[in-house]
Automatic annotation (TrEMBL):
Keywords: Ubl conjugation pathway. Residues 4-164, 294-447 form the UBC core domain. SMART domains: UBCc. It holds the Pfam family UQ_con. This is UBC core domain-containing protein. It comes from the Eukaryota. The keyword ATP-binding does not apply. PANTHER family: UBIQUITIN-CONJUGATING ENZYME E2.
Length: 452
């Protein structure tokens, strides 16, 4: 009989995965539910904005009577303290974890759970984390004001450098200078030796559950990263040292110097490598298709079913495959009447990975359009239904829903087009300006459409 703690942990993991909170993710190996990895995406309007912070959470048999152990992994190998309460060693100081003196009622109880722990950690990532440190809560000495601003400034730099760029470069096998890294070269050698992955033990394969998620999110937030770099550049000079905070110790600090020019160069390389993946997916997909591989056949079948379903339901949109390749779908999307998209004609491209659905499709609007859910490069911010990740029709429905959504609730996690987002969520006259620009781009789409 499975013990109670396993049942409870499994249920909590499912709930978080099904939940639509776009800033939290959790995963574990099937064989090891007690060792969970968690990802927290840094909140909007903080120096942690859209950073990828990873944690391990270890549960033992006493859970939920006892709290789990939580360790921060995103520490630049133990060298970076990202927050007064998140140490370079990985220690996370929180009263509900029993690692921080707390007020009554803040300590652990079985009513808490993994999600409340992650939300508590996320709330440490505030717009002024200097105040998390006891004794500095209501600091208003001039020197403290200066420290607060300096602290925010260095956290923003290290969020970009460590939590975003180091992670992405590792995923993509890039060295910071943009060349393939040593580990990427050895991985390529291994592929040449044709190691059969099936023969490898689960634990010898790196467990990187957030790789695809972070790539997708990187594409969502790319313009925000660039904006943060521009802001940093305007505030500090390259080569300037980080200032030390009064609460930082010698081996528990955030040290280094600013180099935003370097960050800008690196982030552009990462974007280039991600864009190049799509061409590789298409080429590898075409080979899979020639071999009639399982995923090629599956996508081909789904394609035929989608065409049938569109016909049956009188959906106006068209779908076709690029060069007959089931890994590249082209959707012609007609803006629905009586909406802001009325009269528009748009081309949407869906790229599928040879590892679909483990790697989720990348979806781009090829037609230029000014829309708060579409990034400058056309990346569409939509939420696939977690339990239908392998179902392309469900993806298409979610894409259409994102484009057509009326009166969405404010959600800064969908901030993929900073300019459109600011207008959309601004004052009434800003919303009007947004609508005008959207309408203009919709009219333009008709004139520009290739076959029109
Ligand atoms: C958590 O850490 C404490 C102290 O290091 C240790 O005694 C305990 O066994 C750990 N619990 C788990 C679930 O790993
Ligand atoms: C920024 O980083 C690059 C690459 O490491 C280096 O060549 C350059 O000297 C750095 N700039 C400053 C001002 O430190
Ligand atoms: C910056 O830090 C380095 C070592 O961390 C030190 O050698 C250098 O003197 C510092 N520069 C300034 C301007 O404080």
């Amino acid at each position: 009989m499975a013990d109670q703690s396993i049942i409870r942990i499994t249920k909590e993991l499912c709930d978080i995965q099904k939940d639509s909170d776009l800033s939290l993710a959790v995963a574990c190996r099937d064989s090891d539910v007690r060792n969970v990895k968690a990802l927290i995406i840094g909140p909007h309007e903080t120096p942690y904005e859209f950073g990828f912070f990873e944690f391990t959470v270890k549960f033992n048999k006493d859970y939920p009577r006892k709290s789990p152990n939580v360790t921060a992994i995103t520490t630049n190998a133990g060298r970076c303290r990202f927050n007064p309460n998140i140490y370079a060693s990985g220690k996370v100081c929180l009263s509900i974890l029993g690692t921080w003196r707390g007020e009554r009622g803040e300590e652990w109880s079985a009513a808490q759970g993994l999600e409340s722990i992650l939300l508590s950690i996320q709330s440490l990532m505030s717009s002024n984390p200097y105040e998390n440190e006891p004794g500095f809560e209501d600091a208003n000495e001039a020197s403290d004001k200066k420290n607060q601003a300096d602290y925010v400034q260095k956290i923003r730099h290290e969020t970009l450098r460590i939590s975003v760029m180091q992670r992405m470069e590792e995923y993509l096998g890039l060295a910071p200078d943009g060349t393939p890294s040593a580990s990427a070269k050895s991985a390529a050698d291994q592929e040449d030796n044709d190691i059969d992955m099936q023969d490898l033990d689960e634990t010898s394969v790196p467990f990187e559950p957030f790789k695809d998620l972070c790539k997708q999110r990187f594409l969502w937030y790319y313009d925000s990263y660039l904006a943060a770099i521009q802001k940093g550049k305007s505030e500090v000079k390259d080569g300037q040292n980080f200032s030390r905070m009064p609460f930082e110790g010698s081996s528990n600090a955030m040290e280094g110097k600013f180099n935003y020019s370097e960050l800008e160069r690196r982030i552009r390389n990462i974007k280039k490598a991600l864009d190049a993946e799509l061409e590789m997916w298409a080429a590898d997909g075409a080979k899979e298709n020639a071999k009639e591989g399982t995923i090629a056949v599956n996508l081909q079948n789904q394609y035929e079913q989608v065409i049938e379903a569109f016909k049956a339901d009188d959906v106006p949109h068209h779908v076709q495959l690029e060069n007959g390749n089931p890994f590249v779908w082209i959707i012609t999307y007609f803006g629905p009447p009586m909406t802001n998209l009325d009269g528009g004609l748009f081309r949407i491209k869906m790229h599928f990975s040879p590892r679909f659905p483990e790697e989720q499709p990348r979806v781009r609007m090829e037609t230029k359009i000014f829309h708060h859910r579409i990034a400058a490069d056309g990346t569409i911010c939509y939420f696939p239904n977690y339990s239908k990740r392998e179902d392309v029709r469900s993806h298409i429905a979610s894409i259409v829903a994102a484009l057509e959504e009326e009166d969405p609730a404010y959600d800064p996690r969908t901030l993929v087009n900073p300019e459109a987002h600011t207008l959309y969520w601004g004052k009434p006259e800003d919303r009007k300006a947004y609508n005008r620009r959207l309408r203009r781009s919709v009219q333009q789409s008709m004139e520009d459409f290739p076959e029109a």
